[in-house]
Design goal:
Length: 458
Amino acid sequence: MSVPRKACALLGLSLALHATANDKPSAYAYTMPLTLAADTGIASLRLPQAVYIGAMSRDLSDMRVFDRDGNPRPHAIVPPERKAQTRVDDIPARVFPLNGAWRGQPGGLWLDVRVDAQGCALAVATRGAGREREGLSGLILDLGGIRDDSRDGAIHALRFEPPHGTSSYTAELQLETSDDLQRWEPAATAELHWIVNSDEQTLSNNRMEFAPRRFRYARLSWRRGKPLVFAGVVAESGKVVEAAPVMETLSLKPRPVRKELLYEASMAIPVERIGLRFDETNVVYPADVGSYLQTYRHGLRRQTAPSFRPVASSTFYRVRHDGAERISRPIPVGEAHAAQWIVRPHVETNAQPTLQLSWTPATLLFLANGKGPYRLAFGKTDARRTGLAPEQVAPGFTTEELNRLPQAMAGALAPRPGLRHAGLSRAGGDIVLWTVLLTGVALLAFFALKLLRQIKVS
């Protein structure tokens, strides 16, 4: 190996040894004890708010999990999962009895229907020839308009309530659907029954389920059993909606800077919603919320011309009217990171609202080794990323299995003496690092002089 290569190798080895030796819990600004309630090989933790406030990197690359011997454990960060759920809405139906039983060729039953301008049925009657007997023969249901062109919001079931005083009842019903009361499509058949015992306990099957569909009107006919007018018919309409996530919210007080308000935050917070809260009432506050690409330093001055990047522009307010208070809601901003947030009011005002940042925490997975209690450490400017992919920490685990992993319990936050949050650099660590760097430069200079002497001799 040549002399310069030896010098570079020695320098790289020195830096690597320094980084490895310095990757201990004492090198991080904050630590939190982690305890496991069960003996498990893999544990998870919903990251506390303190981690996002104290971490120094956008992607939490300065976060570690150490065992009681101070050795780092393999870990991964699982992004928050967006869960969907089906919301079921009840749509009461308007029920119109059909009197008269019709037999013979199809289409022998005619309907006289009166509707209003919105298409709501006002009256339904039967007419035609071939009537064999009078009496209830069917029901027409008016469910209102389902105008959604997607599968969401379609009706997937009917629920029936028997007339008051009905003790036992069994029947088989056929359902047809229509949008115009002229063209009918078969949809489902189902058996309904109610059985009441001597203790007045009821065993019932009162639902008719079918493939989700959109329709305005429904026609019920009896294939078996005695027709009756139900006390109520309710349609069930399912819609897939995103479940509201459990979010963390950080409230920040401002520091006036010229005509703006500055809020100290953390680059690690993945802000999803931004809101302003006012202590006073009857406030209307049009403003832009964003950040500068270069933060305020050296007092209140920036080194270069500012470049403001707004992420939200709205009129925030808190108004009391007619005995009720109206408050502006937080604004979705996707995902935004900033160490400092700026509020720029559109008009001159003395109001200094509290900034509220909301986000959905990620989940930490780590591999336990039985050497607890473990320690979560974060807050280090020069930390390298050591996090793995979730499948590398929990190989072969499904999403459901990950959700059922034992949860670690985080203890009290412990700041490290001598470490500052702003920068979070340790004085002693900086001295060691500069010593290693200067030693490396000296080695390069020594080998360079040695190489020059060899060239002169040759």
